[in-house]
Structures are given as structure tokens and as C-alpha cells.
Specification:
The protein has eight helices and twelve strands. The chain is α/β, with parallel strands linked by helices. The chain has a single domain (2-220), classed as Rossmann fold (3-Layer(aba) Sandwich). Helix 4 runs antiparallel to helix 5 (139-152) and helix 5 runs parallel beside helix 6.
Length: 256
Amino acid sequence: MLSVEQVTFRYDRRSQPVLRNASLSLDAGQVGVLLGRNGCGKTTLMRTLLGLCTPESGRIALDGRDLTAIDRRQRARVAAYVPQDLQFGGLRVYDAVMAGRVARFGIQPGADDRAAVDAALEDMELTALAQRNVQQLSGGERQKVAIARALAQEPRLLVFDEPTGNLDVANEQRILRHARRLARTRGITVLCTLHDLNQALQCGDRLFLMQDGCIKYTGGGDILTPETVQEIFGARVRAAVIDGKKYLIGADDDEE
């Protein structure tokens, strides 16, 4: 379980807080989605979870363990990050995924490391591409390599920053299905940022609406209403149910 309690962070003493008593909780096996306008603090909150920013107050715990009390190498063993566009240079897929094990082995990887990489490649359906150069892959395949690299760390927390950015619709759907499946089958806590509210409705177990560094609303898809979307994003939408699923549709300014 991920627990973030009253976390405040600012980049220097004279600046305004970027995070203001931000709090959220997310169980193992769940997918959480951070939503909010650009600049509201989503990326800073994720960087704080990963130990890249040190909060001035508050507590961050994973499975009861205080993440702010361990060093970066230890944190890399329990929390993994999948950025929007990870660069692998000229590495083979296998070597790119093995890079996720660096925090766990010394000079040379061992049998456990190779087994973890093989499992991650199989999980992400990349075994047949293991000897290919990552640069030769499609955007969707490269994103799967990034996820496999994170899985090779054997984390308890998997953090995605805009996992569907720069992908076509088919690959967007595949990546979100993978994220949800991994949460369920591996019992991983998954937290991601998304801009697409309908993607959030379809893949998120818990949604967190951020505004000015605070988590303003927490809950399931029911918290995304025309009223909260107007408040958080300044956008007018209508809610519709199609084939039993809720969707948000843009509303014209002259609609009642």
C-alpha cells in the first residue's frame, strides 16, 4: 500500500510550495491516476515519491516502510519509474531491460537478475525482440521496453508519467491494459499521470484530482463530474453512458 500523508515541498525557501499537504492512498494491485492542469504539482509529487525531491514535511510510506528514510539505491529496489520518453541509445532490448537490475547486483548480473529480465520480457511480450536494437522498434514497442525495464527491478510501486504520450490510439489502449494487468497479476501499486479523462475513467481504480499542489478530490470515476471538471480544468463537459461505461464528452459553450 502507498500512503502519502500531508506532504509539502518547495524548490527553495523563498518560493511558494509546489505541494501543499498533499495526501493520497493506494492499495497494492490498484491503479491510481493523477489528474490536473499542467503546473498543478503532478510531476513534482511523482518525483517526491521516487526520492528525486525531498519534502519539507509529511510522510511517504510503501507497505508501511518510510520511503523518505532510505537512500536512493534502496528506493530503486521498491519503486520504479517509467517516463514518457525513455532513451536507450543503441542498446539491445535485453540489455536495456537488464539496466533495471543495476540497483540489485554488483559488478555482474547473476542468475536471479537474468531470471527477472526473462520474466519481464515475457510479461511484456518482448521475448522475440530481445536481441533487437531498441532504436529499431516502434514507439509502442519502446514503451513496452521501458515498462519491462521497470518490472525487472521487481518493484512494489510502479510510477508512470504520461504512459500514452506520443502513442497512437491502438498502442495507448495496449499500454493501459498492460498497466492494469500488471497491477492485478503482480500485486503492484501503480500510479500514473494522464491528460485524457476518459482513459482515466477506463483504467483507474482511484482517481486523484490535483489543484495548486493539493489533492482536491479522491475517489472512483464518480468524482469526474461536469462540475469537478469545470472547477479543476476550466473545461465544459457532459457525462454519457455508452455500453454501460461512463464517458465525458466536450460541451459547447452555448449548451445548457
